[in-house]
Amino acid sequence: MPQEWRAPRHVIARPAAYHLHRPPRGHRWVRVNHDAVLVVSATGIIVEIMPGLFR
């Protein structure tokens, strides 16, 4: 995932508010358009996608 999508403005600070599981250490949920995407913070590797969560 490109660095621009991992910027703080895209990070989902309270995943539980959207019924997302707590990210493992070193991971974070980010919002990409209508989707929530779990990525490895350091590399941007995508681990999980919750499509259409933000419709």
Automatic annotation (TrEMBL):
<dbReference type="InterPro" id="IPR024572">
    <property type="entry name" value="RcnB"/>
</dbReference>
<keyword id="KW-0472">Membrane</keyword>
<keyword id="KW-1133">Transmembrane helix</keyword>
<dbReference type="Pfam" id="PF11776">
    <property type="entry name" value="RcnB"/>
</dbReference>
<keyword id="KW-0812">Transmembrane</keyword>
<feature type="transmembrane region" description="Helical">
    <location>
        <begin position="36"/>
        <end position="54"/>
    </location>
</feature>
<protein>
    <submittedName>
        <fullName>Uncharacterized protein</fullName>
    </submittedName>
</protein>
